[in-house]
Amino acid sequence: MKPFVEIHDVAMRYGGVEGTLALRGTSLSVAKGEFVAVVGPSGCGKSTLMRLVTGLWPATEGTVIVGGQEVVKPLSVAGMAFQNPTLLPWRSILDNVMLPLEVVEPHRRRLRTERAAYEAEARGLLKLVGLEGVEKKQPWQLSGGMQQRASLCRALIHQPALLMLDEPFGALDIFTREDLWAVLQEVWLARRPTVILVTHDLREAVYLADRVLCMSSRPGRIISETRIPFSRPRELATTYTPEFQALVAALREEINTARKSEEVPGAA
Amino acid sequence: MPLEVAHPKDRAAALIAAARRRRVLQAWLPWIVVVAMFGFWEIAVRGFDVPEFVLPAPSAIAASMVKWWQPILQNAWATLVTTAIGFALAIVFGLALGVAIGSSTLLYHGLYPLLIAFNSVPKVAVVPVLVIWFGAGAIPAIITAFLISFFPIVVNVATGIATVEPELRDVLRALGARPIDIIRKVGLPRAMPYFFASLKIAITVAFVGSIIAETVASNDGIGKLMIVASSRFDVPLVFAGLIVTGVMGVLMYAVAAAIEIRTTGWAMRGQTDPMTQAPGG
């Protein structure tokens, strides 16, 4: 099958010719409907990778292809969620979730005539993530975890073919995080978008993804990939099995190696 | 258990009562301050026997207001209309230019020095030029009110739009939003608190502008009234004009503040009373 997202030998440098090299020689491909997690030491360019794939930033070298077309401007098929909820404070939760519908075609054209149907869908999504009854509240009236759930709904509402998640659960406590893993898995199983999840949390990566890609330290590139064999839907109990723990430990080891390789030039 | 510890219910009731007392005091305090100021003024003028043509007592000013109520009202109305037209023009052009230079770095760098230079020119020096162009009357006053209140609006709106968090913009850009969408959905709402903050400054300086112009060359308006009154050494009437201007400024400010609270309440959540807010989460 032809991959949905393809990155060929991409490099990204910030701040001109002498600037910081964030990525170098990065290649990866993601099949349609696949769930891929990207892990790596901090500062390895994971977030840069996200921005390249969605076309928010142009790559310095190499090509990024999404859905068979080279990415030269921001995509319109992507849904994004960041570490911060980034909700608009002047809109109610429901209006925040419906924001993509006001921008993305064909919803944009239909929104006026089919508002009720769209609103029902938004309410359904909010219910799915456990936010029933707060639709009319303002973002600041909700806790951080609830805002993050709403942010996830906003990334999903327009049924994007590609879901880009940049440490979406990074700022949450472990209980909320585990709740949201289950929600995300449920949504993914129901709709099968292509997902690229950037995370620091190896348990999260192994629990959610079909494939975990490990990046080297800056300038980042993909140094290994691990297929996750567990069947779906995965239960939280899966994360306590020895097989799961062994996978996490192996990934941990790889990241350690990646970090050590970074320390060598630093010491010189 | 020590005796002085109150029952939790009583303590909650006491807290609510204290909050209510504070709110009542807060509502009355401006009036108390104004009355106290006039009282102090009256006593000082009488006590030190200050001549009326130096500083008239509030009672003399009030008497003058009653005596001349018709011309005061007529001229106050003229000034109010002049100011309102100038201010409305400042809102329209200030908002448009603010959005333009706030969303384009190129325009920002290109126009900002000129705007600063323009704002540094004393408006009182511009009035004679305006009189040469348009003749004495309401038009120089409208333009002066516009010129003086335009700048704070432009600067604030531009700041509000230029300081949109990059992540908020990315959320929309990742959806394929056009620049105009980003301005409409994020830039403008984000700039609204800045805009209304600037309106509160702009409306008060708009009065300054129109009255300056009226004192130089106009057939009516509070500025004209005060010039005529001072040429007759009718100092109480001059002060009556000053007070009427102050009252109009406060009223217009109150209108701007009321609109601000209605439209941008989301930005002022920190100032609402915690006793009336339900906690989230």
Automatic annotation (TrEMBL), chain A:
InterPro entries: AAA+_ATPase (IPR003593), ABC_transporter-like_ATP-bd (IPR003439), ABC_transporter-like_CS (IPR017871), ABC_transporter_ATP-bind (IPR050166), P-loop_NTPase (IPR027417). Keywords: ATP-binding, Nucleotide-binding, Transport. One of its GO terms (molecular function) is ATP binding. Pfam families: ABC_tran. PROSITE patterns: ABC_TRANSPORTER_1, ABC_TRANSPORTER_2. Coiled coil: none annotated. The keyword ATP-binding applies. The keyword Nucleotide-binding applies. Residues 5-242 form the ABC transporter domain. Belongs to the ABC transporter superfamily. This is ABC transporter ATP-binding protein. It comes from Plastoroseomonas hellenica.
TrEMBL record, chain B:
The chain crosses the membrane at residues 28-48, 76-99, 111-136, 142-164, 194-217, 237-259. Keywords: Cell membrane, Membrane, Transmembrane, Transmembrane helix, Transport. InterPro entries: MetI-like, MetI-like_sf. It is a multi-pass membrane protein. Pfam families: BPD_transp_1 (PF00528). It comes from the Bacteria. Residues 76-256 form the ABC transmembrane type-1 domain. Its main location: membrane. It is found in: Cell membrane. Belongs to the binding-protein-dependent transport system permease family. This is ABC transporter permease.
